[in-house]
Specification:
Layout lengths: L1 E2 L22 E5 L2 E5 L7 E2 L7 E5 L13 E5 L4 E5 L3 E7 L2 E6 L5 H19 L3 E10 L2 E6 L6 H10 L3 E11 L7 E3 L9 H6 L12
């Protein structure tokens, strides 16, 4: 599969609901998209302000929140997808270019980013017509290799070993494939972060990598 750089497509921003508190909006690039986010996402590549493909906004979401004993509430409907974790917050996808977030009390952006850049982003990419895999992908000699497996099977560890051998990381955890041309599927590059268990990180040291604290 061939890695690609997807051209930017501009989408109009939805108006902010009345009464929602203002947060600073930062711009990033990931999966070939320009993302305007009110959640700080240092994992992503910064981008200059401009027309956004995806808007991530923070404010109230008018849907029931999970009770402590339930822990989660997931709703997958035709016109919206709702994922809520009692200890983290609620995430609502209402179209292919907007994610609304209501953080749980006391939760910071680093914890919000964990599900946001995982299952929530995976659902948004799916709504944009991409095939999404729970996998890791690296670029090698003009093509891409994808490593799939259950949680803990070693996808990220295998990708890290390939990076150590001189190949380039395309994306970890959420792999998006563009099947517009079925005879030549394209891997859409994500962002340069890889999640490793402590023992794997110690065994495979990556040069020039910034080690971030555990969430």
């Amino acid at each position: 599969m061939m890695p690609r750089n997807e051209p930017m497509a501009a989408y109009s921003d939805n108006p902010r609901p009345h009464g929602r508190a203002m947060r600073e909006r930062r711009f990033y690039r990931a999966y070939g998209l320009t993302i305007a986010s009110e959640v700080m996402l240092p994992e992503l590549q910064p981008a200059p302000p401009g027309a956004a493909d995806v808007v991530i906004a923070v404010g109230a979401i008018d849907l029931p929140k999970p009770a402590p004993e339930a822990a989660t509430d997931f709703r997958f409907e035709a016109d919206r997808q709702y994922l809520a974790w009692h200890a983290v917050g609620a995430f609502l996808i209402t179209d292919s270019n907007r994610i609304d977030i209501e953080p749980a009390p006391g939760v910071d952006d680093a914890l919000l980013a964990f599900p946001l850049l995982g299952p929530v982003m995976a659902l948004l990419l799916h709504r944009r017509g991409l095939l999404v895999l729970h996998a890791s992908a690296i670029a090698a000699a003009g093509t891409s290799a994808i490593f799939m497996g259950d949680k803990g099977a070693g996808k990220s560890t295998t990708a890290s070993a390939m990076i150590r051998a001189g190949h380039r990381l395309l994306t970890d955890d959420v792999v998006a494939l563009d099947l517009a041309n079925p005879s030549e599927p394209m891997t859409v590059p994500g962002f340069p972060q890889i999640k490793l268990a402590a023992d794997a990180a110690a065994a495979i040291s990556l040069g020039e990598a910034e080690v971030r604290p555990q969430v």
